[in-house]
Amino acid sequence: ECPADDMLRREVTCWNEESGCETVLPASEISRHFQCECAHHSVACLKCSATVLCSDICSHLRSDCGAAMRPLRSECEAEPGSREDRASLASLEGTFQRQATEIRACLERITVGIAAHDDRFNELAQGMNAFKEALKQEVAVVTQQSREILTKSVHDITASNQEVQTCCAAQRDAIANFPIIINRLEGTMRDRLVNLTRETREHVTLVAAAIKAEMKEINQTALEKVTEVLRYAQMQVSVCNFIVKSIKALQEEALKNGFADYDHERVYLRGYCLSPGIRLQKDGESVKFCATLTIFQGDMDDFVEWPFQKNIRLSVVRAKDGLKQELEVEGNPGNESYQRPMNSQSKGVSFIDNRLNFTDMITGGFVENDSVHVQWELVP
To answer: Does the pTM exceed 0.85?
Structure first.
């Protein structure tokens, strides 16, 4: 069994090979060559029955059948005695018959295949027609639905436009009346603000007066309390510590003038306003160290006892260890200087009868860096 494609690709000679054509082509192309391209077609002369090439038939006829060119020998004119030629012709005829049979079989198979393809094409065409019909129906349904949706949307948009126009008209009227409303509201608010300002001013004035009176009373009470506290605090303070500097200069002044005083600034001790101090008193070739006192008018003179009756304790303190040398003197209530001052201050008092030896203070280390630490105290 020979496939049709192989059969059509098999090379064959032109059917005009006997007429001189030497063309060899695949079987699928030999028919086109024979019909359109081959120049060796022959025809029998009507006068002499000789086989002549078609391209030479005119010349043959003009030459009185044989004068112009030699006619081709036909198969009928072949020598009947040539066995080899007859055998070749028989073999060629058998081959041609076999090829024709094979070509016929291939053509039948091709015909069957074409019929099968026609059936498949028919099925495809029917499927395409069915699909086209279904698609047409679906498009019609979708088109109808889209038309309905579009119609509804147009209706809704029209209704919305009408509502918007109505709302805009109402808003336009409201906007047109808005300046009038604003002016009315502004006038009302202005009147209300004026009244509220007046009421607030009056209320603030009353509150300020009340607060001022109350604060005055509170301040007076607070001042009295503070004064009382300060008075009590001053009544409790009894000690004053101070440093006497340039003590050697005071010593030289005492040796020269007989004494030298150092008065500390005014302080409150036990409620008395006084200035504690010390005196360096010359005693022969040496100097003694004693206490002094000056009483001033003070804020607490009405609350302390007069005449002044406190004793005085005078101490010198050694810086390195706090060791003290001290003396104590008694007050003299009968002394004029111990009475309540009528002027700014009373006359100062020096307690020279009870004193410390300044030389012992120096040797004992109580004088350091040309200064002395003094503790001046009132004792009951």
So the answer is: no
